From TrEMBL:
Keywords: Oxidoreductase. Belongs to the short-chain dehydrogenases/reductases (SDR) family. It holds the Pfam family adh_short_C2. SUPFAM superfamilies: NAD(P)-binding Rossmann-fold domains. Signal peptide: none annotated. GO terms for molecular function: oxidoreductase activity. It comes from Streptomyces monashensis. InterPro entries: NAD(P)-bd_dom_sf, Sc_DH/Rdtase_CS, SDR_DHRS6-like, SDR_fam. The keyword Oxidoreductase applies. This is Short-chain dehydrogenase. The keyword Oxidoreductase applies.
Length: 249
C-alpha cells in the first residue's frame, strides 16, 4: 500500500512500542516520517530522528520546526509519547500528578501547538492522539493514569471542534493492553510475570494482548486519506474489552 505517498508525518514517542510500530508502518506505506523522542537510540533510516522531551516547550518547538523543515512540510501528527502511573488517589502525591499530567496531557498540547501552523498548510492534515481504554473504563489502581487519558479524550474532541473548519481532523485511539516494552517492564516487575501476563491477556475478551502493529494500523487509518470524513472520534483497539461488556475469560 502506498496511500501515504507524499505525506509527511511526525510521531512522538516514536522510538519504542506503539510509536515505533506506527512510524515504521507509515514509512512502509509511503510517508516520510520523523520521530520525536527523549531517547532516539535505535531510530535510523528511513526514519528521521529528533531528540526532544515533550515536557520542555522549547525543545518541542525546536524539534517540530526542524522536522517540518527537513520533511518539507507536515501533514500528520501522531501524539503518542506517554508514561504510566499506578495506584489510587492516595498513592500519588501532587508532584507525581503534575509530572504525569505534564507528559501525558501537556506534552500533547505542546506538540499540537508547535505543529498546527504547519498542519494548516496541508491539504491532508490529521492529528491522532493516543488515548487509552483507561479514559472511560474505570480501571482499578489507575487513578492518575486514567485521569490523564480522560483529559486526552476531552482534548481530542475539543481540538476536533476547534480545527474542523481549517481542514484538520483530530481523532484518538483507545488501546487495551498492548504488548510493548512498557508492558514488558511492568511484567518484569511483577512477582510472577507469566501469571501477570496471563491475567492481563484474560482481561480482554480476545484472550490475548493487543499487538503494537494492530494499534499502528488503527492510527494509520485515522491519519490517512481513507478516514477523510472522520473527526472527533475514539477508535477502540482493545480486544473487545469495552464494546463487548463481557466478563473476563
Ligand atoms: P513505550 O514506553 O514502549 O514507548 C513510549 C515512548 O515515549 C518511548 O520511546 C519514550 O522514550 C517516549 N517518551 C516518554 N516520555 C517522553 C517524553 N517526556 N518526551 C519524549 N518522549 C517520551 O510505551 P507504549 O506502550 O508504546 O505507549 C505509547 C502510548 O500508548 C502512551 O501514550 C501510552 O499511554 C499509550 N497506551 C499504551 C498502552 C499499552 O498497554 N502499552 C495501552 C493504552 C495506551
Amino acid at each position: 500500500m502506498s496511500d501515504f505517498a507524499g505525506l509527511k508525518a511526525l510521531v512522538t514517542g516514536g522510538a519504542s512500542g506503539i510509536g515505533r510500530a506506527t512510524a515504521d508502518l507509515l514509512a512502509a506505506r509511503g510517508a516520510r516520517v520523523a520521530v520525536l523522542d527523549r531517547d532516539v537510540t535505535g531510530v535510523g533510516k528511513p526514519l528521521l530522528a529528533y531528540r526532544a522531551d515533550v515536557t520542555d516547550d522549547t525543545s518541542v518547538r525546536t524539534a517540530v520546526e526542524r522536522a517540518a523543515e527537513d520533511l518539507a512540510g507536515l501533514d500528520v501528527l501522531v501524539n503518542n509519547a506517554g508514561i504510566g502511573a499506578q495506584g489510587t488517589v492516595e498513592d500519588n502525591d501532587d508532584t507525581e500528578w503534575h509530572r504525569v499530567f505534564d507528559v501525558n496531557v501537556l506534552g500533547m498540547v505542546r506538540t499540537a501547538r508547535a505543529a498546527l501552523p504547519r498542519l494548516r498548510r496541508s491539504s491532508h492534515a490529521a492529528i491522532v492522539n493516543i488515548c487509552s481504554i483507561a479514559a472511560t473504563a474505570g480501571l482499578p489502581q489507575r487513578a492518575l493514569y486514567s485521569a490523564t487519558k480522560g483529559a486526552v479524550y476531552a482534548l481530542t474532541l475539543a481540538m476536533a471542534a476547534d480545527h474542523v473548519r481549517e481542514g484538520i481532523r483530530v481523532n484518538c485511539v483507545n488501546p487495551g493492553t498492548v504488548d510493548t516494552p512498557w508492558v514488558g517492564r511492568l511484567l518484569d516487575a511483577a512477582p510472577d510475570p507469566a501469571a501477570e501476563r496471563a491475567a492481563l491477556a484474560g482481561r480482554q475478551p480476545t484472550g490475548r494482548l493487543v499487538t503494537a502493529a494492530e494499534v499502528a494500523g488503527a492510527i494509520a487509518y485515522l491519519a490517512g486519506p481513507l478516514s477523510g470524513a472522520t473527526t472527533g472520534t475514539a477508535l477502540a483497539v482493545d480486544g473487545g474489552m469495552q464494546g463487548l461488556r463481557l466478563r473476563p475469560a
